[in-house]
């Protein structure tokens, strides 16, 4: 009796899977993953435009290309995936009869009905499958392998590489897009940013040339001005960095998403918070300024050792040591922040993002 119940259940399961095939005759199409990718690409273009990283002209060009690819993927979806209804019905009937019989036969020979079920917790902890986005990127990579002259393809996939820590691949893709499609401020700045990520936050001479090329085409390029200022700060050119970032903030819109970051770096570079304390330090001789700044940084460190829940404090401490070119202390501050913020996922994410930006901790 139990085997009959199993056979009926198996038949019902097979029928529930095959019935939509018999009714509609539609097969899944891999173009759905491409659609999701290009929709995300369009959203990414809009975000970069809002952040001032992409000029309106470049936005229209990139968005038009992504939209074209999206329309082509949508047109391909299900276009040639229709199956014959009659063949589907025959296949369903065959599967309903043969599959349960074969399954019961094999299970009677090889199965172990006495084994315990897989616990729910174990299933919940199982590793998820690869994302559809990664699958879409793999398709684009296969396309580029066959059509290496497709500059738009490199421009589409390069930001994905950069967001996922594949800086070397991003450099290669941005460089090929620049070569095949021609120079624009956004392409030069994106290539420079990829080089900075590859150097763990350090602005190399090669990256600086990319940013200078972006500024030659668009003197108002926010991302290029930011990294040129960062290069000056890293090279010890304090006054130059302050001048660049001060002008960048003066030109920024009130809702610029990077405004707060630049303001914090500028504040740290000046060596003191705004207000009366900052004015007093600014009036000191250079040597006294440095001593006062280091004293403030050490007091901040001592306070964080007593109360490590202050995310902003950790961010200021890591920036301060980085600006003071004290790499070991910056690394120690990063380790301390990660330990103190172990239960604050958002705080840890902000600390890790700053560490990557400044090249702290390798």
Describe the structure.
The chain is mainly α. Among the domains are: about 185-270, Serine Threonine Protein Phosphatase 5, Tetratricopeptide repeat, CATH 1.25.40; about 275-360, Serine Threonine Protein Phosphatase 5, Tetratricopeptide repeat. Helix content is about 75%, strand content about 0%. It is built from 18 helices and no strands. It has helices at about 1-25, 30-50, 55-75, 85-110, 120-125, 130-145, 150-165, 165-180, 185-200, 205-215, 220-235, 240-250, 260-270, 275-280, 285-305, 310-325, 325-340, 345-360. Helix 7 (about 150-165) runs antiparallel to helix 8 (about 165-180). Residues about 125-130 and about 270-275 have low confidence and may be disordered.
Q: What is the CATH T-level topology of the domain at 184-270?
A: Serine Threonine Protein Phosphatase 5, Tetratricopeptide repeat
CATH superfamily of the domain at 184-270: Tetratricopeptide repeat domain
User: What count of helical segments does DSSP give?
Assistant: 18
Q: What is the CA-CA span between the terminal residues?
A: 65 Å
Q: How many DSSP-defined strands? A: 0
Give the helix proportion (percent range): over 70%
Under the CATH scheme, the architecture of the domain at 184-270 is: Alpha Horseshoe
Strand count, sense and closure of the main sheet? none
Q: Provide the succession of SSEs.
A: HHHHHHHHHHHHHHHHHH
- SS-derived structural category: mainly alpha
Overall, the morphology is flat
Average residue-wise pLDDT: 79
Instruction: Work out the radius of gyration.
Output: 29 Å
Strand content: under 5%
Assembly category? single chain
């Amino acid at each position: 009796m139990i085997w009959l119940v199993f056979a009926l259940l198996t038949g019902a399961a097979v029928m529930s899977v095959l019935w939509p095939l018999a009714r509609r005759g539609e097969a899944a199409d891999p173009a759905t993953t491409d659609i999701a990718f290009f929709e995300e690409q369009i959203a990414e273009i809009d975000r970069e435009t809002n952040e001032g990283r992409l000029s309106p002209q470049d936005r229209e060009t990139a968005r038009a290309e992504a939209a074209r690819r999206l329309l082509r993927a949508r047109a391909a979806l299900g276009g040639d995936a229709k199956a014959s209804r009659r063949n589907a019905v025959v296949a369903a009937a065959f599967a309903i009869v043969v599959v349960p019989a074969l399954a019961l036969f094999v299970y009677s020979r090889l199965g172990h009905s006495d084994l315990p079920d897989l616990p729910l917790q174990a299933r919940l902890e199982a590793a998820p499958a690869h994302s559809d986005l990664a699958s879409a990127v793999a398709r684009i990579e296969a396309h580029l392998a066959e059509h290496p002259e497709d500059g738009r393809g490199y421009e589409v996939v390069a930001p994905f590489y950069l967001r996922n820590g594949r800086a070397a691949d991003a450099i290669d893709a941005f460089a090929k897009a620049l070569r095949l499609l021609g120079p624009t401020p956004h392409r030069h700045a994106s290539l420079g940013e990829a080089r900075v990520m590859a150097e763990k936050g350090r602005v190399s001479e090669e990256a600086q040339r990319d940013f200078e090329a972006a500024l030659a085409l668009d003197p108002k390029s926010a991302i290029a001005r930011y990294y040129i200022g960062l290069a000056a700060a890293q090279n010890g050119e304090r006054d130059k960095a302050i001048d660049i970032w001060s002008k960048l903030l003066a030109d920024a819109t009130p809702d610029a998403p990077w405004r707060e970051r630049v303001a914090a770096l500028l504040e740290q570079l000046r060596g003191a918070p705004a207000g009366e304390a900052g004015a007093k330090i600014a009036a000191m001789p250079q040597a006294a300024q440095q001593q006062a700044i280091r004293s403030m940084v050490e007091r901040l460190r001592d306070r964080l050792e007593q109360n490590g829940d202050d995310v902003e404090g950790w961010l200021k401490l890591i920036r301060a040591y980085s600006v003071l070119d004290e790499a070991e202390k910056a690394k120690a501050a990063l380790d301390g922040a990660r330990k103190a913020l172990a239960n604050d996922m958002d705080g840890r994410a902000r600390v890790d993002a700053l560490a990557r930006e400044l090249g702290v901790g390798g």
